[in-house]
Specification:
The chain has 102 residues and is α+β, with helices and mostly antiparallel strands. It is 29% helix and 29% strand. The strands form 2 sheets. Strands 2-1-5-6 form a 4-stranded antiparallel β-sheet, with helices on both faces. A two-stranded antiparallel ribbon has the order 3-4. It starts with a helix and ends in a 5-residue tail after the last helix. It comes from Dyella japonica. This is Integrative and conjugative element protein (TIGR02256 family).
């Protein structure tokens, strides 16, 4: 993931430092085994941040995913989630860990 998008995730995660947080990664395929993150969506205003759990604001996230998809004529699509653990740094979720994102 580029420093630009990593810093967006880190900034969001810093707002809930002592709690878990997360969001969505969107992007484009740039070859057979490489995906480029081109957009980050936060947890949403109604997300639940806890010490040992995170529940995203799914209706809001789905709306943002659809908006980005249509704005890019389907070129930018859902890649997976990012998740920050308690007092940790943002990391791709298990779904994205296997997609070649770095």
């Amino acid at each position: 993931m580029s420093p630009k998008f990593r810093s967006i995730c880190e900034a969001e995660a810093s707002t809930t430092f002592s709690l878990e947080s997360g969001g969505v990664l969107m992007g484009r395929q740039q070859g057979k085994n490489f995906w480029q993150v081109d957009h980050v969506i936060g947890p949403g205003q109604n997300a639940v941040h806890g010490r040992f759990r995170f529940i995203p604001d799914l209706p809001w996230q789905h709306e943002q995913i659809a908006k980005r998809f249509y704005e890019t004529n389907g070129q930018s699509t859902y890649l997976g989630d990012w998740h920050k653990r308690l007092n940790g740094t943002p990391q791709p979720g298990s779904v994205t860990s296997d997609t070649g994102l770095d």
